[in-house]
Amino acid sequence: MDIIVLPNVEAKTREDIIKILGGILYERGYVKDTYVDATLTREMKYPTGLELLGSTNVSLPHADIEHVNEPALAVARLDKEVEFKKMDNPEESIRVKLVFMPAIKNPKDYIGILQKLTFIFKDPEAIERIKNAKPNEVEEYLRKKLTSRM
Amino acid sequence: MSEGLVKKTILVACGTAIATATVVAEKLRMGLRKYGIDAYTIQCKAAEVAFHHKIAKPDLIVATTFVRKDLGTPVIWGICFLTGREEEETLEKIANLLKGGGVPK
Question: What ipTM describes this predicted complex?
Fold first, then answer.
């Protein structure tokens, strides 16, 4: 699976960052032109903000498989945190620093990727690394983590 | 393997693709064993909770997104199994609940 890491992304709202990440996936042919809108709609109905153990929060905006051409994961490190609604409570917002946008083609892959991402989310050291390492190192690190057999 | 364990059914609900629910269900099945519970899990979309509830008659609903809470079965949030925040506490809460310890707050 291809991994794209964007450091120092400027975005004011969650709509901005979804358009930025989804736009890159679209430009590079991973997703269809319906992907961004489908992700925005899904995020409204089923928000994806996750409050982690440390001080860094993440979100997982995505759309269903029918909007995807080729699997990829786009990750943004935001300069300034952006508000996302919480997955378990759409009434509540959290400030999100890292946005993971998985474009998944095969539903079975999604389960595997999510499972591996949750291992990363639960590991404060991994999160620090994704926050601070050079983009190409983060890509390599994520590729290793996401393709490893558990 | 599961001899001596209490058998319970848990309906696990998430947003749309059932991926989150599948990940959470796996953690529930593994995690509840040490509490002496053999959990049978059914994964479904949040919008289909009522339907699956009717058919499966679960002992508990674990949800990672908002689901209706008026089905007469306790609902517990399962986000902790994705983030690690209060994961053990939640597992314990679920185990107590399934063993008849009443509805937690």
Answer: 0.70
